[in-house]
Amino acid sequence: MQIPIHSVADLGLAIRAVRHASGVRLDDLAATASVSKQFTSDVEYGKSTVRLGLVLRLLEELGIQLQVDVPQAASAAFDELRRKGALQSRSRSSDAQP
Asked: What region does 76 belong to: left with phi over 0, alpha with psi -120 to 50, or beta?
């Protein structure tokens, strides 16, 4: 099921709904995602200053996929930027090797 997300609060509600439907306790989700119970609660209640990387951990633990609907006109630019980013990260990791 796809749910349009228009705010941090919407995403928090989706996370809380999936957690409840899965029968997972808030503290158990926090522990398995390696985040604090307070952070998990902040996300579920729509705190706007949460760290995206940690939110992605919660989503992954719950099996929620996050997708962005990029306009077709930006598709080629996205692919090019992603390719360049992959090349840069590869060159940085090879520079770090002895």
From this structure: alpha
